[in-house]
Design brief:
This is GNAT family N-acetyltransferase. It comes from Taklimakanibacter albus. This protein is α+β, with helices and mostly antiparallel strands. It has one domain: Aminopeptidase, CATH 3.40.630. The chain is built from four helices and seven strands, in the order βααβββαβαββ. It has a seven-stranded mixed sheet, with helices on both faces. The longest helix has 15 residues. The protein is globular, with a radius of gyration of 15 Å. The protein starts with 5 loop residues before the first strand and ends with a strand.
């Protein structure tokens, strides 16, 4: 696995690559696959949200999307299967936290994929509840966490 050389802001030209990486995620197979059916990262989304990607030697390895607004939310965080276990998810999360703090955002909400809750908790997010199912695409409770971006 190549060493990550760059975390940069995504551009509209990255939309298809980001969508492919997300759709190829092994974390969203089986029952969890329904939530991503038909979902695409769009040029509009890239222009509206803070989306940063990690790449090495021109190869996309991961990305995150931080939605701004009244209730800032970490919308997406994906790491390519080949980069799993390398610390890239931790690095992207730290980058997101720094970006949020730099913009004066004291708290970031995270509506998590159930298997990812422990990852977010290890990085300082606190579980505060759950988002009820929204059938037919989401038949499970999605854990809701908050992350303080600075001193509490």
């Amino acid at each position: 696995m190549a060493h990550v050389t760059d975390i940069r802001r995504a551009t509209a030209a990255d939309a298809l690559s980001l969508t492919r990486l997300m759709q190829d995620s092994p974390a969203y197979r089986g029952d969890y696959a329904r939530i991503l059916e038909g979902y695409q990262v769009t040029a509009d989304q890239i222009g509206r949200d803070l989306i940063f990607l990690a790449e090495a030697e021109g190869r996309l390895l991961g990305f995150y999307s931080l939605m701004l607004g009244d209730e800032p939310e970490l919308d997406l965080l994906f790491v390519a299967e080949a980069a799993q276990g390398t610390g890239l998810g931790r690095r992207l999360f730290a980058h997101m936290k720094d970006e949020a703090r730099a913009r004066g955002l004291a708290v970031v909400k995270i509506v998590s994929h159930p298997p990812s809750v422990g990852f977010y908790q290890r990085l300082g997010a606190k579980l505060i509840g759950g988002k009820p199912p929204s059938p037919p695409r989401v038949s499970w409770v999605r854990p809701v966490l908050i992350l303080q971006t600075g001193p509490a």
